[in-house]
Amino acid sequence: MQENRVSAVLGEAERQAVFAAIETIRKKLPFLIDLTPEERRALPRYGDKSRGFIEQALQVAEQNPGVLPSTFDVGEMRNDLELLTALSSVQTGLAQLMELVDDTVLAAGSDAYAAALIVYQFARAAGKGSALDAALEGLAQHFARKSRSKPAPKS
Known about the structure:
Helix content: 55-70%
Mean pLDDT: 91
Number of strands: 0
Number of helices: 5
């Protein structure tokens, strides 16, 4: 028999408390934005290697303000870097939590599916003619192959 990896209950009160905690996080980060796919594609790419470049460029900007146009806001650049630093640690914590949630959802789904397969196997073994006929038909639909429709002939 399949190992049951997850054995837990998430009651409605606990679930609502989690949603409240998520809402609290959202309220603590009111500046978060939601980019469209087009906006994401249009942004300059930032990666791990870019961090040092940004820090060096900020030093150059702070030490040589005369080389920049008067409209360039060095303070805003510094704020962006500080926000990036602060949010990166939050992102790491949330990513770790999301991975735990993802793994638990995967394991719970696997546990439930494995149990359903056992139920189906034993129901089939009980045989036709028992009170299980209608239920077996419903369960069997999961394994029914979908027929591929042939493309219409070209005229």
